[in-house]
Amino acid sequence: MSQPQTVDLPLAPPRRSDAPVLAADIVERLTYRIGKDPRVAERHDWLSATILAIRDRVIDHWMDSTRSTYEQEHKRVYYLSLEFLIGRLMRDAVSNLGLLEETRDALASLGVDLDVIAELEADAALGNGGLGRLAACFMEAMASVDIPAYGYGIRYVNGLFRQELHDGWQAELPETWLADGNPWEFPRRESSYEVGFGGTVDTVGSETDGTGRCVWRPGERVIATAFDTPIVGWRGKRVNTLRLWSARPIDPILLDAFNAGDHIGALAESNRAETLTRVLYPADANPAGQELRLRQEFFFSSASLQDILRRHLQQYDSLTNLADKVAIQLNDTHPAVAVAELVRLLTDVHRLDFAASWHIARDCFGYTNHTLLPEALESWPIPLFERLLPRHMQIVYAVNAIVLREARAAHFDEASIRSISLIDESGERRVRMGNLAFVGSHSINGVSQLHTDLMKETVFANLHRLYPDRINAKTNGITPRRWLMQCNPDLFALVRETIGDAFMDDAAKLVDLDRFADDPAFVERFSAIKRENKVKLSNLVARRLGIRLDPDALFDVQIKRIHEYKRQMMNIVEAVALYDQIRSQPDRDWVPRVKLFAGKAAPSYLAAKGIIKLINDVARVINNDPAVRGLLKIVFVPNYNVSLAEVMVPGADLSEQISTAGMEASGTGNMKFALNGALTIGTLDGANVEIRDQVGRENIVIFGMTAEEVGTRRAEGYDPASVIENSRELSQALMAIESGVFSPDDRTRHADLIRSVRERDWFMLAADFDAYAAAQRRVDGIFADKPAWHAKTVRNTAHSGWFSADRTIREYASEIWRAG
């Protein structure tokens, strides 16, 4: 084993962190790093100085973690994800280091309020929704349970767009989260790698004497440069690294062209490189957008693998033990091209034979699948793939030959073989990235038990038949540090006072709270905290939208990516039906309700953008109708991100998890709501099944068809028109929307949305509507019975500890990664 040369230098002693020392350090950073006199410093100056002072203490733990991993030769986990929705980091770091009160006291002694400056921290725009937030929770959990890990992704300059509402329509604006710099990141110029595209593949040497090998000569090259962010685990036990790649050109400016007057052409290479890391999920409705998406995925996958191999060879003198020391997890299909890239690097660059390279790659990779929607399993047109990645196309064909031979040897029929193939030949030939990730991994996991079972029966049925030992279930989890301790500090304090500190290190101990669900004194305090959180959410809505909410109303919340299968449209159609009932039955004792929505629609997803407009159109009418008497309000809160979720989740009474059964892989929002004492209304989809099993059937409101029933109904020939005709409330609500009651300025605006329900209704809105409406009226009855409601909400918190990401990561570590 080769060891790098080291110099025996003394290590700096860890910094003290009592409040006076911390206060002095903050002032020192403010003066000498920010260049501000404390007497004239602004709030953002104090924020930067505080982050720098806390960051120094993080670095002490970070370096200790890195040294121990190297010295003890721990297996490292590498988590490849196109998204990391990490949110604000200061409170997370301070809390996990156990310095929250010291930091608060230090700042108070300087006349600064920690809570005020914490709100100024930028919310990193590195993700879209559940996929990215899961990756962030997993990074924190890996550090908390002492798993040495790197997260790899892209350092998006603008990331996902900032959402504004213009007359109720979604408008996409650049999210400039990096405009004022990022004090948490460390540029690593020494960790830079060339990443190529296009070009040709040559064969050098002789095949007959065994020296022949392929050499890829890219026609275009960019440099990937690393930026590292420390991710602090609970109690500072370990600090791991989130390494994000930024792109820069090899030649930033073509000086001859510039001097010749071609100023635009001279910067073309620079602009092309920088475009790679500009925006998360560029619209791919056109060929240019598709090409950019593939470029992004290969860019970060290649840079990450080069970095992994460099680090391994720095410590070991051979790559033959790579799978013993390295576990690489693919978070969905976005980094699936890494399978072909690792084979290329091992074969073409490091001179291993193809069979050995393929074996090593398969033993290193694990693949997490997040969708059962075939269209969401990425595939790329072969002409595009081959033009950008010619060597990888050769490798895909070679791997496919191995897989198809194995299928034929197992006597698979031709239809099964076609579904297994890495090449989809049903129309335009395309490379199936989900199949590549599957065959290139030793483990393929779903993210809930139901999702895993359905994977075996649907999208990967034949691959599962061929490789029956690979698919396994790893139900998602969330970090209780951010989603209870930090976002709901009053509830955290009450739980701690009531059952002690054990749950802080083992979330499963929250179950000790169950015996207090019928304790009037405890329930009174629990419900008072919920009301105060609702006041905070009401204040946020008033500040941003000018809408006043009654915190004593039932807060019914649906926050997630806008998509037809998540059925925000069913929610708003039910609101229209309820609106009609409230007006026509004024003598009925209605439960006041506020329906809150938040989420972003993909820029090219016109139906989802139409749903946002529909929600806002309905809100405008209902919120301004005096006949409603304040019994129903609709609110769409724009620009959903982690920081907004940290206010909306604790303030929710009811959690909407109403996806078409069989389509939501897991969900993590459902877990966050339950942990914070909200009841779930939902279908038996994704992790809702396991939430029901954990919290008890009596403490969740389940409705609608099961995944099996959805499949059966589709197979038998589902006729939504007849269902609508037989549902008075649904037919009247759809007719009101379709006729322009909520869009008097354009009475046909929502006609296409309604037509899609009447004629096709793939997502079963009509089929589940009456059951959903009836479930909502059951919710009204429970909410009106305050002792029963509060007992159920307490039991949701008490039985949500199983959904800790710590539990999930321990399962990954022992059953997939063999690490820790």
TrEMBL record:
Protein's cellular compartments: Cytoplasm
Record Pfam families: Phosphorylase
EC supergroup of this enzyme: transferase
GO CC, alphabetical: cytoplasm
GO biological processes: glycogen catabolic process
Keyword set, alphabetical order: Allosteric enzyme, Carbohydrate metabolism, Cytoplasm, Glycosyltransferase, Pyridoxal phosphate, Transferase
Modified residues (N6-(pyridoxal phosphate)lysine): 672
Keyword Glycoprotein: no
EC annotation from Swiss-Prot or TrEMBL: 2.4.1.1
GO molecular function: glycogen phosphorylase activity; pyridoxal phosphate binding
Necessary cofactors: pyridoxal 5'-phosphate
Superkingdom assignment: Bacteria
UniProt catalytic activity: [(1->4)-alpha-D-glucosyl](n) + phosphate = [(1->4)-alpha-D-glucosyl](n-1) + alpha-D-glucose 1-phosphate
InterPro entries: Glycg_phsphrylas, Glyco_trans_35, Pyridoxal_P_attach_site
Role, per record: Phosphorylase is an important allosteric enzyme in carbohydrate metabolism. Enzymes from different sources differ in their regulatory mechanisms and in their natural substrates. However, all known phosphorylases share catalytic and structural properties. Allosteric enzyme that catalyzes the rate-limiting step in glycogen catabolism, the phosphorolytic cleavage of glycogen to produce glucose-1-phosphate, and plays a central role in maintaining cellular and organismal glucose homeostasis.
Family: Belongs to the glycogen phosphorylase family.
Protein's recorded name: Alpha-1,4 glucan phosphorylase
